[in-house]
Amino acid sequence: CSLPPFDLFLSRPDEEQGGHADQKTSPARTSHKKHLPPIPKNAVPITKPASVGTPSHLANGTHASYGPFYLEYSLMAEFTLVIKQKLPGIYVQPSYKSALMWFGVIFIRHGLYQDGVFKFTVYIPDNYPDGECPKLVFDTPVFHPLVDPVSGELDVKRAFTKWRRNHNHIWQVLMYARTVFYKINTAEPLNPEAAVLYEKDGQLFKSKVVDGVKLCNSHLFDQPKVDDPFAISFSPWNPAVHDEAKERMFTFKRRPEEHHKGAQVSGLSWVKPGSTQPFSKVDSPQS
Amino acid sequence: MSWLSRLNPRGPGSRSNRSAAPSSPCTADPETCLMVFENHWRQVSWVLEQRDTSSFSDDLTAVRNNTDQMLCLLAEERPAESADSGSCGAPIGPILELVITENILERLVQWHVRRGLDPDSQGALLKLFEMLIGQSQQPLLQHTAVLHPLLRLLGACADPELGCPPALENSLVLLLNQVCVSMARQPVVLEMLFHAAPAQQGSTNLLIFSLLVPFIHRDGAIGQQARDALLLVMAASASHEAVARYIAENSYFCPVLATGLSALYSSLPRKIEVRGDDWHALRREDWMGVSSLVLFMNSLEFCNAVVQVVHPVVRSQLLDYLHNGFLVPVMGPALHKSSVDEMIASTAYLDLFLRSITETSLLRTFLRFILLHCHDNDTILDTLLTRISSNSRLCMVSLSLFRTLLSLNCEDVMLQLILRFLLPCTHVMLSQRRAIRETDMYGKSANKFLSLIPECCRLNAAASAERDEDNPFWSKVFETFIVIKTIEKSVNISTPPRHSTPSRLSFFMRQQSGGGGSGGGGTSTSTNVDLLQSGPSGSHPLSPDSPKHQTHTEAFDWDAGYLEYLKDARRDIELCSWACRDWSAPYDGENPSPNTSPPPPAPPSSNPSVTLFPEHFSFQREGNSNTPPNQQREEAAASLSSEQQEEEEEQRSSALDQKLTDVRGDGSVMGVCSPARPLNQPASQPYTGPFMVVLFAKLENMLQNSLYVNILLTGIVAQLACYPQPLLRSFLLNTNMVFQPSVKSLIQVLGSVKNRIEAFAASHEDFPSMLRKAQQYLVARGKLDWADSPAAVPPLRRSDSLIKSRKPSLGDLILRHTNSPTRARHAAQLAFAHVRDGGQSLHSALFRGGSAGTSSLEKQAEALRVKNAVYSAVIFCEFLKELAALAQEHAVTLPFPQNQEAEE
Prior knowledge:
Family (chain B): Belongs to the FHIP family.
Radius of gyration of chain B: 33 Å
Strand order of the largest sheet of chain B: 1-2
Largest sheet of chain A: 5 strands, antiparallel
Shape of chain B: elongated
GO biological process, one term (chain B): early endosome to late endosome transport
Subunit structure (chain B): Component of the FTS/Hook/FHIP complex (FHF complex), composed of AKTIP/FTS, FHIP1B, and one or more members of the Hook family of proteins HOOK1, HOOK2, and HOOK3. The FHF complex associates with the homotypic vesicular sorting complex (the HOPS complex).
Oligomer: heterodimer
Number of helices of chain A: 6
Organism (chain B): Nothobranchius furzeri (Turquoise killifish)
Number of strands of chain A: 5
Largest sheet of chain B: 2 strands, antiparallel
Protein name (chain B): FHF complex subunit HOOK-interacting protein 1B
């Protein structure tokens, strides 16, 4: 199915600054969804293998039916954490077909990989959060010591030798994926050639990286490889489509779904910040 | 501003066919009209010029007839259409010009006054002026030739000797109302009234205003007109500092308004006629028939409206008077009456008032009174708290009041009720403090809550699944799930889920779900813009139709509706965190810092009398450290009038008491109840505050509570569990948290309830069938209510959004039908029909315990005990699902950013 373009402000220089981070993450999703046509009625979502989250009978084995809720909510909670982290230059979007697959894109703003726009997919093990750490695979193998030159998989495991629930979260994987482009590590590489070049011939490494970035960016507007309505796709800037979307992103204010305009009464507080006494705020004549 | 917009349309046009207006002789030609007018004036002026003051009635009649005609002509005259209108104001018609140059009206009024104004002429003049001002086609009041005679006439009405006879009050108020309406249209008139008057009238320079004030609290149309008129003055004062100062400094407006409320309150019924065992709050239907309450509510509504429009100077004075002249001297003692009936009434009134107020600053005044004012060493809040532990209707009314308080999402309220006790984090083991901020990422807490659903209640559900084979659990789940999914994609599939299983929500949520019968899934907002704001909710990652779901089909009918709970939890948490976004601190265990926050008040020391009379619990707090000094001063100032008032009330109420206790047995104060708080507890022990303690004690006692108490009670705990502040959230919902031994956790309380239910079930062979019948009864009742349109929202509120933001919580809805006796009867009949299938009908055994003939008092008591226990088991299971859903939803909720800029 052909998807409308998805814009991510390719050229905004100030994006690195944290100020707009809040508007960046969620509205990015937002605009995507706004332009998304209704799912064709016959698009039957493909599900993960049946083993997904098949709940081991819990506690006294009677409320196993809640198992799917738990997995689903755990992943939603992870996604919520990602949004809260406001990771600079990283955007993710769970797939329509499976919550265990997230599409993402990372923008590199400076350093060797500057101007790189790398799409990737995160695969979360189906026994999450008790399994191994999630996999992160770049759509186009990036020339990097820690990225497998064939599969495009990033070596995440070295950072998360053991995935510990409550301590490890998916946003950390994403953060790690960003870090590797700024702080290059060549120990035990998945791409020995890149590692050796980096150590031995910085110039050549650099030019290979630049070539790789160029190659990657030249395929930016390709259709996504996966046929998924929530896959990330780019298109050239089209003011007719994007200006309005951008405007909405910047003016966007999240409200409760059932919020009614003009509800003034919310947010009652007369506590002076720093005080724990009720009515400690000086009574302003306005309220 | 709806008051004003309601007032403004009442212009000249709408009143054209009043009988008071004499028919006009001519409307056509301005020149003819002027001639006719001059003709009349000649005749009048001839009479006026008679030196002889003791004129005959012939003169009077002549003057009056001619004046009628003249003023009609003046009122009908249209402003001249001359082109040279540029300089000042609209061009005036020739008649008006004549009136001004000859000073006709002034001479007329002077003549009347000089010859002694009899009520008849006074009334006639009032009517004439009212007609003139109300119907005039051109602005009149900015001409001193009109304004001054008007003020002279009104001055006569204010004259202590002459005064205004009662028969003329209607005319007077109507005239004043007209003046205020035109004043609201032309602010310059206010200025003129204000400045022109002193020369004429001496001290009271805003005469119109002082004349209106006495009518503020009047019943009927005249009171309404006076209030409307005053409100216009108030609105005008907002931009006129001088007027505002005058009102505040030289008028009795604020004291009259506030003390008037006191007077009206004292005439309210001392006892509320109760119509059913589930009644717990005053709804509009309840009070519309009680004239004294209608009167009070009108005045309260007026106060609210005044606060909304008036200048801040007047507002703060009014609020002070309301606090010191109404709340402290009247509400305070009323809430502390000793008879249960009076406590019920005053609590229900206070609840109603709080629900009716829309203005933030007025609400603040009420809340400050409740939280900080001390009556007999107890804050009002503490007094109200103790009432929860009673087992009478008083408990329900009090719970209802607290539900209202919680629904305000007010930081100050939450601080006093709970947060200040949790702030020091002493209730948590030191090692656990960092867990305060954790959410239920992996559903562990949710799982824990669900695991407490007693085995005996699950068996029942498995059995009932067979009945419902056409509607297996997962197909229902799909429906809802698909709805959620499709909403995201703006595809509207309408699949109203059926409520065949007694999900607590499905009985209660009717009103909130808004769409009447569909009750949930299908009615959510489906505009795509809204969805975008739902954050992670847009990402229900698991597809509903995945085969793995289907493997569980059919076996879990009992937990149908869990998605409804999730959906509701999401909405409620979102609304709550939206409402709390401007709080001063996140209350996350670090901010405010546990170390700097003052130690919370220690639990009250034990007091033997307290256990006997729980209604009279009082906290022995030394010193009122919470009361700011200026308030203490205020209290001292107010104490005099307070004492008088109290004495009066005391006399009246004791007589009433006597009567009531004679008539009804339930006027007694005694009640079996669990202690409101652990007694004999060393003060150094961590203490989570009286509110939590009393709620938990009540909750632990669920089996003994009536169905309605349990609905309210669980509703309140669920309401608390919606709050996003980590301190509160972790206290209620984090089941992994380890608390200090002296602190009881919600999960402990629930565990104990579970054990009790299981023990009860084990001792009653027919528990499964009773449980099923209780469920069926509740479903039938819920459906019936559900089908009814949710039209009866308290209409006192002016803004819909406010209703929403202070929605009645869950329990309200099931209880609502009491207000309509017929509906209640239908509900009962339907339920009986539904339930009376087996020989051993639960309801013939339980509901009509007396009708069995042989049943003794003991049997009835036992039947009641069984009934309560069975119903509590149903509510308990639903409550656990609700809590589990809340725990899960908290993990996926995004906080709202603070509200930096002013809202639209």
